[in-house]
Each structure stands twice: as structure tokens, then as C-alpha cells.
Design a protein that fits this description.
It contains ten helices and no strands. By secondary structure, the chain is mainly α. The protein has one domain. The longest helix has about 30 residues, at about 50-80. About 40% of the residues are buried.
Length: about 240
């Protein structure tokens, strides 16, 4: 446990030192929240724009940490042989994975705390189920970590970097995070609802509403991604590029 704790601290320090990681995990989610809340660009049929934005930005934070930050860092560690070397130490591969998991959870705790604090300052008043929302965000973390590790363990580092950033932008636009999904063309909306970003955002949005209604279809989609992607990543992951 001491080795895992030490590796977790190291992972967190390295993550916070990477400027590009802070941009994706903190600056972009908070920037989207403040910008769209202030310019009144989000038009919703009922309720306030901030009530619509907060669940989407929380989901965006999960995607940025679990898929982009974790995936890119792991890809380059694999490229330079760090994973292979650490896996052969007393820490072991299971300890390394535990440390990476703990790092993502700590980073998410920081992100979500900041997002909620800024949202409250902007006038957000949570009225729904915070505990179910936290559980859904944890499920989303598993799904996006599976995507990130799949790319990190199968693609070359440069290709993984491009794929992670490209997928982040795609899911940002199709995730219903900054504007309602029904604003998309019908065919594109149907595709978006099958993706993990939209499924997570809609589920979190549902339980944070005063009525607290969890959309069943989106939950099924989210669970499928959360189960299938980690299994696929575990089977396909290679510990070095050789």
C-alpha cells in the first residue's frame, strides 16, 4: 500500500505539472461553464441555463480526466518504456493500475469541487440527487478510462495523442454538454445518444433535476460502455510499443 500511495502522489504531481493536462481538465470545463452561463447562449425549454450546464460540465470533467489526461500520459509512458519498467518493480502492474486509478479519482475530486463551487457562485442551486449523480459520474469515469486505456495501449504515442484530443472535441460537440441534444439534426442526434458523453450528461442531468428522473435508455447506453470498454482495453492493452 505504501508503494501504491507513493506512486499515486507521483502521478498526481506529474499531472498537475503538465500545462496541457491542466488546460483540458480544469481550464476548458470551467471556461465553458462561465462563458455559456454569462453570455446566455444556451436556450432551454424550461428551467435556467445554469441548471442545464452544470451536469454537462461535470460530465466533461470526467471525460477530460479519465480519457484524455489518463490516456495521453499512459500512452507516452508506454512509448518510453516507463510502464514496462514499473511493472517489473515490487509495485507490480496491479499496483501501477491502482495508483493510476487513485490519481484519476483525486483529480476528479478536485475538478468537481471547483466546478460546483463556481456553479454555486454563478447562481446554481442543487435541488436533485447529488449522491446518484456522484455514482453516475463514477460509472462514467470507468467508461472513459476504458476508452483512454484502449487507445493508450494499442496506438503509438503520437497517434494516441491525436486520437484522444480529436475524440474529446467530437464528444464535446455531440455530448449535449453545452447545448441540448435536440438542437442537432435528427440523424446526428440519434447517433449522439448512443455515445458515452451524451449518455452520461443526460443521466446526471436527469437525477439533478428536482423530480430526479433517471433516463433508462441513456443509463443502459452508459452501462454498456462502462462494462465493454474496460474489458476490451484489458484484452488489447500492450505494455510497450515493441
Amino acid at each position: 500500500m505504501r508503494a501504491v500511495a507513493a506512486q499515486t502522489r507521483l502521478e498526481l504531481v506529474l499531472t498537475l505539472r503538465r500545462g496541457e493536462s491542466l488546460l483540458v481538465t480544469l481550464v476548458i470545463p470551467l471556461g465553458i461553464l462561465v462563458f455559456f452561463a454569462k453570455v446566455d447562449a444556451v436556450q432551454v425549454s424550461d428551467g435556467l441555463a445554469i441548471d442545464f450546464l452544470v451536469p454537462g460540465v461535470l460530465s466533461l470533467a470526467v471525460m477530460s480526466s479519465a480519457m484524455v489526461s489518463l490516456g495521453i500520459a499512459t500512452g507516452f509512458e508506454r512509448r518510453y518504456g516507463v510502464l514496462k519498467r514499473l511493472g517489473s518493480t515490487p509495485l507490480g502492474r496491479s499496483g501501477l493500475l491502482a495508483a493510476k486509478t487513485a490519481n484519476v479519482l483525486v483529480l476528479l475530486a478536485i475538478q468537481l469541487t471547483l466546478i460546483v463551487a463556481v456553479a454555486v457562485a454563478l447562481g446554481w442551486e442543487p435541488s436533485g440527487g447529488l449522491v446518484p449523480a456522484a455514482a453516475l459520474l463514477l460509472i462514467g469515469t470507468v467508461a472513459f478510462a476504458g476508452i483512454g486505456m484502449l487507445m493508450a495501449g494499442t496506438l503509438r504515442a503520437e497517434a494516441n495523442l491525436a486520437a484522444a484530443n480529436g475524440l474529446f472535441l467530437l464528444l464535446l460537440f455531440l455530448g449535449g454538454m453545452a447545448y441540448p441534444l435536440d438542437r442537432l439534426p435528427a440523424g446526428l442526434e440519434a447517433i449522439a445518444r448512443l455515445l458515452p458523453a451524451a449518455a452520461l450528461a443526460e443521466c446526471v442531468r436527469g437525477v439533478l433535476e428536482p423530480a430526479g428522473q433517471l433516463p433508462g435508455g441513456e443509463l443502459v447506453v452508459l452501462l454498456c460502455w462502462a462494462v465493454g470498454l474496460p474489458i476490451l482495453a484489458a484484452r488489447k492493452f500492450r505494455w510497450d510499443e515493441a
